[in-house]
Amino acid sequence: MKSNAPFVSVLMPVYNAQEHLSEAIESILNQTYRNFEFIIINDGSVDSSDEIIKAYQSNDSRIKYYKNECNLKLIKTLNKGVSLCRGKYILRMDADDIALINRFEKQINYMEAYSHCVVCGTQLSYIDNDGNKVRDITLPTDNSKIMASFLFYNPIAHPSVIMRTSIIKENKLQYDEDYLHAEDYKLWVELSKFGDCANLGGKLLKYRVSENQISAKYGIEQKLVASKISNDYFVEIMLELGLCNIISYGCYKKIISSNCYDSDILLSWLLANSVFNSRRLKILVYLKVLLYSEYKFKKFVVNSIIKKLFS
User: Fold this and answer.
1) Phi, psi of 69 (to 5 degrees)
2) Predicted confidence (pLDDT) per residue in 166-205, tens digit
3) Among candidates 223, 229, 118, which has minimal Cα distance to 178?
4) For residue 93, which of 102, 126, 142, 253 sits 20 to 30 Å off, Cα-Cα?
């Protein structure tokens, strides 16, 4: 990194975001941590987003404003933005959310203290279109629980993250267009191969819930892509641990196609056993016993895994 490069880069794509754009921009410019470049990419907006951004840019040199000649959509715009980032860290922001004033300071301090961490999110408060709190969202904080959660859902909120730029660029990682509407989920899984993931315990982002969100507009498609990510991740872990040989092919197919998550009691019991020390074994323990639907089948696989681990 060049000596004159900003310490961190903030990346915010914008598309027809005039309603809440000023609030989002101000929440970034007013951060207690001030040594950053603010990369804003207008992805072909046809509302007044352009005028709003230019007004702020004229008063704050930290804003680096780029305009796509046409609407490239989110994934291409994000990858373009990552390539423009010069900071040690990349912080993501969405154009309708609100970052709490000390968000950057807390996340940068964490990343500086834990050099093995490659991506770190925060807890969230959902807000409605008028900024009223809908509810608080609690996400897992430590690496083992986040890694395990990848088997079921995306446990890191995209607009809340800070990422280690060197890991992304040195390993040529990017948002993958083959995982449309869940490209962030896929990126976290890939990043996790190079270090730890975390979520800070405090709520540092107000996340706006609206009918225009990807999860609202493309919910079915998003779930299908997310299911592929979680199933592929499951297969990777089973192969890495050499546990595929403890179950038959038919049972294996049944595991990865099931959508039952009703093994919380068993999960709690397994987590209470401190003998699981390695990161991968902790992940295995947290599989909620691998997504089965039938008790006898579940009991068979659990016993097989325990036998494998302790024999």
Assistant:
1) -65, -25
2) 999 999 999 999 999 999 999 999 999 999 999 999 999 9
3) 229
4) 142
Cα 23 from Cα 17, distance rounded (Å): 11
For residue 206 the two structure tokens come to 């107000």
* Non-local CB neighbours of 305 within 8 Å, separated by 6+ positions: 243, 246, 284, 289
Using one digit for the tens of pLDDT, what is the confidence trace for 30-55? 999 999 999 999 999 999 999 999 99
Instruction: List pLDDT tens digits, range 52-76.
Output: 999 999 999 999 999 999 999 999 9
Q: How many residues does the chain have?
A: 311
CA distance 22 to 47: 13
Q: Residues 116-134: what's their mean pLDDT?
A: 96
Cα–Cα distance for residue pair 197/186, rounded to 1 Å:
13
Instruction: Domains for the chain: give ranges and CATH numbers.
Output: 8-218 (3.90.550.10), 242-310 (no CATH)
Classify the C-alpha dihedral 10-13-14-19 as positive or negative: negative
* Angle in degrees, 0-180, between the axes of helices 18-29 and 49-57, rounded to the nearest 10: 20
pLDDT at position 308 is 52
Tokens at residue 40, please? 């804003």
At a CB cut-off of 8 Å and minimum separation 6, what does 6 contact? 35, 36, 37, 62, 86, 87
Element (H, E) at 14: strand 8-14
Q: What is the pTM of this model?
A: 0.80
Please report the pLDDT score of residue 283 as a whole number. Answer: 47
Alpha helices per DSSP H over 114-218: 143-149, 165-170, 183-191, 214-217
